[in-house]
């Protein structure tokens, strides 16, 4: 009886403590960035700051929060216990088969167990087990004694669902504000970001949403044990050696990159200097293989850019900050291919610019509305992509194959764009880069470089040329190594990007050096 009374008193004290915490939290006004992967002006950073001030979230210098990672049972227990500022010395040590008494996590587990907020199963606490969204809210709502009756607007939660009372309490207290026709996705894993958002809104009412929020998606993204490496800037140059970049190249080596600023600042001689030093580019979201690390540079291989000498893809050196490691796998996701010259990814408010990306960028799609695709980014969660700027397909293999007219018209969009050696983005192309980008956008991954493009597809005699064929030029009167490629558009003319001092243009392939060095044609359509 005495023990039961102590627990009851403790619960009363907890309730009173929560009220005090609300008042204390409301005084907070500063929202400096406290985790390196959560932007200072984001709603999540505001919520994390409130919890940090209460001790519910512990900030470490230069640490990441991993908002999109699934939350574990121990993490739920720790967030709750520390937010409530429970004295960890007071709780009796429980007996769990999988947690020895001396385990450093035991004080938190003991406190959450004694409070009755979480208990074990078959003698185990299972601290590393991940929780579904339904399981997490069934712990959270009663832990803070949230109550309230309201119609549940989530389309996938029935009245008899086991999590319905907890979800109703969250809705009634405006911890969540569902958008129209939104799903709760109870079987999806609860993320660390979503859980701390709900927790912060419970202890600080001013954080509660006043209008419908963007939905929580039933993501096609899967967690895998094996890490993948993905380009995390709009476009990155692949250098043939590390640490070659000059001071003038800084806008292209920092994160985020400023490609237009970089290219516009280059003189012709500075552009020419790039020849033989940069080899290609990779776009935002491109998967790469990590080959080697030297200081702040990594040697990677761009998987979608074929070279015969390396199975992993086209190799080159990039700044470490341009590539992010992830355990996420997108094989089950649809894709969006950017068809606009350039477009801005937007934050979930559909107003705030996140990042400008290039034509031919490919990103996984996890949901959509009438105006937007919700796309997964390499390292910063879900962003919005305007449907008017991209086309979605169930997979890359399902992209409809283009006609020659489509390919030619797409390439013509870049007439007068200044040439950029090694360029594969719409900030600047080289001769083979523009063709690689246009074909890639339309479901055909041709090799990246002209001398490899000249070995693929179907060989075509000059007399049988058709619009849409690729025409090649080689040293030694067309008998040596291929050095240039153009897109044949008919009537003896080609669209091409000639050299560092030129622009994308249309001209005859039957005059001067082009007539002399013509070496053959290939058909990829």
TrEMBL record:
Domain NlpC/P60: 401-525
SUPFAM superfamilies in the record: Cysteine proteinases
PROSITE patterns, per database record: NLPC_P60 (PS51935), SLH (PS51272)
Biological process per Gene Ontology, one example term: proteolysis
Signal sequence segment: 1-32
InterPro entries: NLP_P60_dom, Papain-like_cys_pep_sf, Peptidase_C40, SH3_YKFC_2nd, SLH_dom
One Gene Ontology molecular-function label: cysteine-type peptidase activity
Top-rank lineage group of the source organism: Bacteria
Sequence ranges assigned to domain SLH in this UniProt record: 31-91, 92-154, 155-213
Family: Belongs to the peptidase C40 family.
Protein name: Cell wall-associated hydrolase
The species this protein was found in: Solibacillus silvestris (strain StLB046) (Bacillus silvestris)
